[in-house]
UniProtKB/TrEMBL annotation:
CDD domains assigned: GMPK (cd00071)
EC number(s) given by UniProt: 2.7.4.8
Similarity field: Belongs to the guanylate kinase family.
Lineage of the organism: Bacteria, Pseudomonadati, Pseudomonadota, Alphaproteobacteria, Acetobacterales
Superkingdom assignment: Bacteria
Protein known as: Guanylate kinase
Molecular function terms, GO-annotated: GMP kinase activity
């Protein structure tokens, strides 16, 4: 992940002029994904993976409707999620409570995604996520140069 820091004025200008594929202002800070590098990578046949919230997902799907394979990762239970957050021992209890409230809001949007993986077992969840991404990549419309390749068969 590469971060490129901009002033808030630059960020707001980028958002207003459509230079960001998805963006949000959270706690007074701007977060977003520049559109041009993503579009260039997709045109070159590369895949892009984003770790974004449901609102970012909506923005990306709206901007690139034919290029989005979405995946929502659910915890096995809210109790397990809270246990995982607590066991890290890196957050204050107030922060954990805030994260749990945010998680409940995020989880309410699971049905807006193409696929859902329950992260009960990390290795299994990774296997399932890779399978989903591989299947998305193998869709006919996502395979760059496929038409030219098939054309070499004389068909």
């Amino acid at each position: 992940m590469h971060y490129h820091f901009r002033s808030m004025e630059q960020f707001e200008e980028m958002a207003a002029t459509g230079q960001l594929l998805e963006w949000a202002i959270v706690f007074g800070r701007g977060y977003g994904t520049p559109r041009a590098p993503v579009e260039e990578a997709l045109a070159a046949g590369q895949d892009m993976v984003f770790d974004i919230d449901w609102q970012g997902h909506q923005q990306v799907r709206q901007a690139l409707p034919d290029d989005v394979v979405s995946l929502f990762v659910l915890p096995p239970s809210l109790e397990e999620l809270e246990r995982r957050l607590t066991s890290r021992a890196s957050d204050h209890p107030d922060e954990i409570a805030r994260r749990m409230a945010a998680a409940r809001d995020e989880i309410s949007h699971w049905h807006e995604f193409d696929h859902v993986v329950v992260n009960k077992d990390l290795d299994r969840a990774i296997f399932e996520a890779r399978a989903i991404l591989t299947a998305g990549r193998l869709k006919t419309r996502r395979q760059t140069g496929l038409e030219e390749f098939v054309g070499t068969f004389g068909a």
